[in-house]
Amino acid sequence: MPPKDEPMKKLPGSTRERALAAGKVVLGLGRAGVQRLVRRSLGDERALGELLASELDRMKGLAMKIGQIVSYMEIGLPEETQAILTRLQHGVEPLAPELVVAELEAQLGAPVQKLFDRFDLKPVAAASIGQVHRASFRGREVAVKVRYPGIADAIDADIRQLSVIARVASLATAVDGPALVRELKERIREECDYRLEAAHQLLFARILGSDPVLTVPAVVEERSAEGVLTTAWHDGVALNAIGDARVAATDRIVLAFAKLPWSTLFGHGLLHADPHPGNFLVAAGQQLVVLDFGCVKRFDADRVEAFRALFRCVLDGRRGEVMSRASDVGLVGEGGRVDPDELWALLRFVLAPYLVPRFRFERSWWRSELRHFKRPTSTMRHMPFPPDWLWIQRTFIGMHAVLIGLGVEASLADIARDALGGAAAQGVIGASPPAAPGSSSST
After folding, report:
1. How far apart, in whole angstroms, are the C-alpha atoms of residue 146 and residue 227?
2. For residue 215, what are the β-bridge partners?
3. d(CA 394, CA 396)
């Protein structure tokens, strides 16, 4: 691993390199479990966090994405370890500047000095697929995201390992592991195409254009390509920074953050499925800037309406309908081996913040609920877990984990009711991806 003050010269891309790095992570997680059992010192927890953060940051791709999720999800890691992992939300190990500039110039077809008035070689973030540099273009400040050279090969190597694990794991459950891996591969490979991300960003900008709080940075199409995405620059602080010194005005930020998946899923068949705090910026005037549209899941109208019926069933307390509604979305297999009471409890856990007038996001609630579903006798292993439910569950549970980290109390029931009570999904964006900027087709 290179020293902290020396940028990486390349990503570990071969299957062997990825496997060795993944082995270090697995060993580190094993140490985490031992530390919790023997109550090791705070210094041990910090050392473990440094090991995990460094390896996942160096691997980038799918490995770093998993680390980002772990950084804000309560999964049992020591608190100090998890705190250190939050650096993965922005990354600290960038690629060498000469490699970034070479990729930028190859993508846009001109020297960097001609492409931008100013281009800062030091990145402001080194994320999982690419890194972000601040620049100036035609007199305005912009953010330039440049894809890592070789990232597609690194992701393919990770997916190959994950596919083997999924096939074995599926033998003892009702989950179609290979199908989940295919879904994951499709989404993360989409994230490598910044033209598609630009199209999604333009689409969300249109959808959220009249929202008083949510803001989407403008895309600079003249300086964007398959491996480069240039957008307007926004100053502000990361979403998780508001948890330390909350004021009444931040309530509107919390409500906007919670409203985003409800309004776009049930109004437009679109889900921004990567809710980690590094993807949101709190800007001046109490605006919540959504920074990243790489991980967007599209649903057709029939699927949206099936999920709408299931969520309405839970919010209305119609316990007797849950098996039927869950079957419609694929959460109950033909054998019906999922216990109805456990299924009802799981769905009420996912939707708990919307079942009461005001909800307090506390770790004690989160931990007690998760312990319930981890029992050896749980029938949740018989749940088929359709691939598109992966993104629903990741988005909503991930969003709730972020709110737990902020320690907020909020009234969210109306957000859910308004979204579920809206018009049928007539304006849903279909399964086909939107056209990239400059394409002749339309969305």
Report:
1. 6
2. 289
3. 6
